[in-house]
Amino acid sequence: MRRTTLVAAVSVLVLTTGCGAADMTRQASPFADAQGSNTVTLSVQSWVGAQSNVAVAQYLLEHKLGYRVDTVQVDEVPAWDALSQGRVDAILEDWGHPDQEKRYVDDKKTISRGGELGVTGHIGWFVPTYLVKQHPDITDWKNLNKYASLFRTAESGGKGQLLDGSPSYVTNDKALVSNLKLDYQVVFAGSEAAQITQIKQFAKEKRPFLTYWYAPQWLFKKVPMTEVRLPAYKEGCDADAAKVACAYPHTPLQKYLNTSFAHSGGRAAAFLKKFTWTTEDQDQVSLMIADQKLSPEEAARKWVDGHPDVWKSWLS
């Protein structure tokens, strides 16, 4: 997904599927933990917003700071293991993993906080806005059972379908359906790309759909969606995964660095700590990659060329 410059380019992309139980002790970047060398290894998650972060960070590290950059794609929880082991140097977008944070940041201290990304993430349930115009009360979860028949599919077993993406993503949906006594079945598309394909097909045909989705996300610009109001989120309401009966929180997305890299990574580590941008910035790059079909490097170059006032402070 990325190309390096200056000296001979080498890039390894490790792909995972399904639940993505990648063994990062075997699947390591050739640049990882290369003490004293001008190399950086970044973890890139499978959704396009995370890819946008990495694309811009990689472009600047290579073209402005003279580093070789490698990217490794691995699912969310295994990425923490890889970061702790020094198999990757940084995660640029984490949506909240308190167990891993306690283990690696607070207890083992093998991972260090890299600061906020500048983007606030939110997961929720969404229906297409054209459906809300027909049924305005559908945006209250208490009315979902009344409309369950609208969302039935061949995969939902006679119940309404709640479309999720990858089973590896942060999701409370099975518990929510059970605890809120909803006549729905969670159906996994398998990946963000597959979920987007289904959503776009539903929208093209103006069919009803209910989907797990998240912001920021470029697809909202193409398929307007309205969030379904779940029971209000309160601190700690999602502490027991089996008993969750509340909405997802709004989460300031965080960066994390391998502790050794954070201390000895020089200008690269300093740059990644300063890397912060807005939801609008991320969406611009994501739209170029996912909708306009630019390569991540091309999208990053276009954004960098148009926003020197944003990124120059990251290099100082």
Secondary structure: elements and pairs:
Elements: E1 39-44, H1 48-63, E2 68-73, H2 76-85, E3 90-94, H3 98-107, E4 111-128, H4 129-134, E5 160-164, H5 173-179, E6 184-188, H6 192-204, E7 210-215, E8 225-227, E9 250-258, H7 259-264, H8 266-274, H9 279-290, H10 296-306, H11 308-315
Parallel strand pairs: 1-2, 1-3, 5-6, 5-7
Antiparallel strand pairs: 3-9, 4-7, 4-8, 4-9
Helix pairs in contact: 1-9, 1-10, 9-10
Describe the structure in your own words.
The protein has 316 residues and is an alpha/beta fold. It contains eleven helices and nine strands. α1 (48-63) links the parallel β1 and β2. It is 34% helix and 20% strand. Strands 1, 2, 3, 4, 5, 6, 7, 8 and 9 form a nine-stranded mixed β-sheet that branches. The relative contact order is 0.18. The chain has helices spanning 48-63, 76-85, 98-107, 129-134, 173-179, 192-204, 259-264, 266-274, 279-290, 296-306, 308-315; strands spanning 39-44, 68-73, 90-94, 111-128, 160-164, 184-188, 210-215, 225-227, 250-258.
